[in-house]
Amino acid sequence: TETVTFRPFNSITCAFVGENQQAGNNSDDPGVNDWVIEQLLNGYDVYVWDDGYDLVNNSGDCDEYGEGRALSTIANSVNFQGVSQVALLGYSHGGGSVFNLSKRLYFDGQSCVWNGDIVSFTDVIAQPYTLVYTSYIDAIKNRSSVDTEAEDRKPWGTSYHVNQYQKNTGALGLWLNGTSSNGDVDLNRSNLLDGNGQNITHTSIDNNNEVWLTVSSSFVSHTNR
């Protein structure tokens, strides 16, 4: 005789890949996609989304105001599936999407100033929940596909924020990097090395094992399945 126990999820996690990365394609774009698979195997309800600008201006996953499929999925889980915890994670422009989505969640059903304009949001979440965890990996503000400004703003309403970033110059003198965002954990990872023994850059930080160990340990500590 075998017994199968079904348990409802207590949380939902939305993870965002970076610019020009494909959500769900871990063979070409590991990093965030590999982490999502790891947490799915650990029993978490995790979704991976596009950063919002890779497909004809907007993929529909998360726009510059935090609207899109990611928000709709969170609302459905909280309203109809008994989920009471939300977690968000993003790399590069995906980190900017985390900020955008957190602000949209915070001002659900309200008006606020956004990029200099007053915007009003429809109330889409009817049940209580907590944004228990957020994480940036070399986050870049995501107001357009060519935004290069480091995301220095802590996500709205988060209970615990983990921020990891680097300040190194990449190949051919090109650079792109995150910065401090007043996280509960706020780590400059510029001294870490990539697989070739070179200091990590914006394009390699999302494949660094130490970075992901920090994400995983803090995520599990603050997010219930």
Question: What does this protein structure show overall?
Answer:
- The protein has 225 residues and is an alpha/beta fold.
- The chain is 22% helix and 19% strand.
- A six-stranded parallel beta sheet has the order 2-1-3-6-7-8, sandwiched between helices. Strands 4-5 form a two-stranded antiparallel ribbon.
- Helix 1 links the parallel strand 1 and strand 2.
- The chain is globular and about 50 Å long.
- It starts with 10 loop residues before the first strand and ends with a helix.
Summarize, please.
With 225 residues, this protein is an alpha/beta fold. It is 22% helix and 19% strand.
User: What would the average pLDDT be, to the nearest integer?
Assistant: 94
Strand order of the largest sheet: 2-1-3-6-7-8
The tally of helices reads 4
Helical amount among residues, as a percent range?
Answer: 10-25%
Shape: globular
User: What proportion strand?
Assistant: 15-25%
Poorly predicted runs: none
* CA-atom Rg in angstroms: 17 Å
Largest sheet: 6 strands, parallel
Instruction: Please identify the structural class as seen in this structure.
Output: alpha/beta
Q: Strand tally, please?
A: 8
Order of helices and strands: EHEHEHEEEEEH
* Separation, N- and C-terminal Cα atoms: 27 Å
